[in-house]
Amino acid sequence: MSIISKDIQKAITLLTDEKLVAIPTETVYGLAGNIFSEKAIKSIFSTKKRPFFNPLIVHVPSITSLEEIVIHIPEKAKLLANAFWPGSMTMVLKKSDKIPDLITAGKDTVAVRVPNHPLTLELLKQLPFPLAAPSANPFGSISPTKPEHVERYFKNDIEMVLDGGSCTNGIESTIIGFENDEPIIYRLGALALEDIEAVIGKVLIKNKKEQSPDAPGMLARHYAPATKTLLVDDISIEIKHHLGKKIGVLSFSNSLNDNSLTEIILSEKGSMHEAASKLYDSLHELDHLDLDVIIAERFPDNGLGKSINDRLQRATFSL
Ligand code: AMP
Ligand code: MG
Question: Residue 163: which of 128, 127, 130, 120 has the closest Cα?
């Protein structure tokens, strides 16, 4: 029987009972549990096989809930929250004593977001506790943007995926931290840098690719298909190096018109937003075709293109 269901009451019952439920957000599906339940939080880490040193994002229903979980809100954080919540921006702020160390990997900061999905906002409003919810995929693999992706990963491990359809933004939230009250981007994501800078001016980026990072989204290899994946400026040149192989192509907007390969075009009209929303689903699809290689096209280095390139780069990093 499928674990995918629209029954929000069932989700409330399971979460109250310290169980996990996969929840829809506008970025990707999250694997959610009560932040105050040690049992639930430990099972998030064990289900995902996520190392304990990687902190989790706390999801709250509104800006007002922030005051209960953080002790200091810089002016620029207030401007950002008012401009973008509910939405695809996570802020890392000084945590209050209420937040368990397990959530923050012992740090004195907590990552928090108000997600923009009607079902999940309703769920958060009805629950008396916030939800910790990292992406609902095994650590390091492609994030889920459809309920079916989560079901494929975790049908034997969790009882329910709350069905909220396909994620409209399709890549993870942009994470912003503060050092001396000045904003710093820790992870590029579904909210474009330019949109953030329009509200608070120039921000620094520390989106480093490290093996032992502050944030798992910063690992050099992450969001990765099992199939060997390459990121190139010109797909037609790269194809010549793989003659006779089963090739999958992921391009932004133009078709190669070549029947000998499997091609997915992310947005025929050239919309970066549409491309981001389809990115992971397309990688899931290509990864299940038993191909020898997936060749992805690099995006223009602006707006969401920057965030898409970041994810593609991490998907292509080979061990
Ligand atoms: P995921 O939920 O899988 O998208 O990953 C959550 C992201 O939030 C990870 O990259 C975390 O490391 C990051 N994060 C959560 N808490 C903190 C924190 N206190 N400081 C820095 N990054 C954080
Ligand atoms: Mg993740």
Answer: 120
Q: Please work out whether the CB of residue 213 comes within 6 Å of at least one atom of ligand 1.
A: no
Does residue 221 line the site of ligand 1, with CB under 6 A?
Answer: no
- Provide Rg for the chain, Cα atoms: 19
Enumerate residue ranges in the chain where pLDDT < 70: 207-222, 317-319
Atom of ligand 1 nearest to the CA of 133: 2
Closest residue (by CA) to atom 5 of ligand 1? 134
Q: What is the pTM of this model?
A: 0.94
Query: What are the structural domains of the chain?
Result: 4-205 (3.90.870.10), 229-316 (3.40.50.11030)
Residue 221, Cβ density class (10 Å: 0-12 exposed, 13-18 middle, ≥19 buried)? middle
pLDDT digits (tens, 9 = 90+) for 222-271: 678 999 999 999 999 999 999 999 999 999 999 999 999 999 999 999 99
Number of the ligand 1 atom closest to the C-alpha atom of 215: 12
